[in-house]
From TrEMBL:
GO molecular function: tRNA (adenine(9)-N1)-methyltransferase activity; tRNA (guanosine(9)-N1)-methyltransferase activity; tRNA binding
Region of interest called Disordered, as start-end residue ranges on this chain: 83-110, 162-201
Protein name: tRNA methyltransferase 10 homolog C
Transcription is among the record's keywords: no
Positions with biased composition (Basic and acidic residues): 172-184
GO BP field: methylation; mitochondrial tRNA 5'-end processing; positive regulation of mitochondrial translation
InterPro entries documented for this protein: MT_TRM10-typ (IPR028564), MT_TRM10-typ_sf (IPR038459), Trm10_C_MTase_dom (IPR025812), tRNA_m1G_MeTrfase_euk (IPR007356)
PROSITE patterns in UniProt: SAM_MT_TRM10
Chief location: mitochondrion
GO cellular component, one term: mitochondrion
Chemical reaction(s) catalysed: adenosine(9) in tRNA + S-adenosyl-L-methionine = N(1)-methyladenosine(9) in tRNA + S-adenosyl-L-homocysteine + H(+); guanosine(9) in tRNA + S-adenosyl-L-methionine = N(1)-methylguanosine(9) in tRNA + S-adenosyl-L-homocysteine + H(+); an adenosine in mRNA + S-adenosyl-L-methionine = an N(1)-methyladenosine in mRNA + S-adenosyl-L-homocysteine + H(+)
Organism: Pygocentrus nattereri (Red-bellied piranha)
Amino acid sequence: MIFLRVRVVGVLRRCCCCSPQASALVKLRNPSLPTSTYPSAVTTSRALSTSWTLRKDAPQPQDVDARHELDLDVWKSVMRSQALQEEKRKDGEDREEESTTEVEGELSPLESSRRLVETWRLAGKLVPENITDEQLETLAELTTKSSKKKFLKYLAIKEGHKKANKEKKERKRAERMAETKEDPELAEGEREEMDGEEEGEPKLKNTYLMQFWSRSMDKLLGWRVAQAMQFGQPLVYDMSYDQHMSRQEMENTVSQLLETEGWNRRAVDPFHLHFCNLQPNGAYHRELLKRYSQETWERLLITATSQRHIDIFPRESLVYLTADSPNVLRTFDYSKVYIVGALVDRSIQTGVSLANAKRLKLATARLPLDEYLHWDSGAKNLTLDQMIRILMTAKETGSWEKALEFVPKRKHTGFHQQRKKDNCLLWW
């Protein structure tokens, strides 16, 4: 019955729309629709697209012009509010861009970066109070606005930590001064100690033992490293990964290289360190000069070169140490030259160093971590300072159990033998 009723309604609509009165009614209610007094296929199809006949029960305005005026007013108000919001947003962006372009106008990159920092400080953004020329040069090298904001925010937070530590030291100093005022006997000794701390000199103590000065220790360690440069086993750090690291990762890499050089200098039998693929004025070189200073870098007892390791050593003696290698380093070979990639990858870029070694057709190996340790979770990537401590211990003792003690405890649950002993004790 419902289907028949719908068909009857359709027939009535076609019949009504074919008449001149129906066409006039359609023209009145929908002025945009072309109508004709003559029956045609176009007129019939236009009438079928209207749904006015099926919606007579809904309340409709009596006056057609009033309905059109009401819709137009609503449309105008909506569009006007949207236009105002869009205008405000564009004005804010234009002002910020104008201030940036004005700052970066016909000025040097250093001066434009300095003025940009001052402008953002006046705008209430998080920027450091004091900024060095080197930091301004780093800021000028950044291309996007978001990267500049992140860098300035990082500097501001770092500056805040330094201020907090300084205030903490001053507060402790004030507390100690207050305690010495209460105890007159300790006042003189405490005052001398504080004066020595301010001048950077150690406090003098009465002792029957001869003082072993730090410069004497530096001479001894320097002599060992000088001997290693002539007779020691080479250890290569590949510095061809600057394009794979961000600025923060590069800073972390150089920090680990500094610790690596320090551990090697203090070793009983140090390696002869080679920094290969170190390009002059490159990212590695600039950061190393920043940390060491030019004078210290020139006196450093290492070999830094822009040449590749395959151009310095025989290819058959090179072994690239990478965590992605399928080969396990069972024993430490004193006749080999081991290569470590100077790379810090927080995003865990797997296969980068392995691909580099395969491209150069070099032998690869990985540390026997799974063979000796119950690995808990995480990637098997170690820091550069951990790697050299493991290699130095393996070189001196020949024991992987002692060498792998420098692997962080958070990454594993113990050695295999120790785990078995613990299980036996728990069972008994």
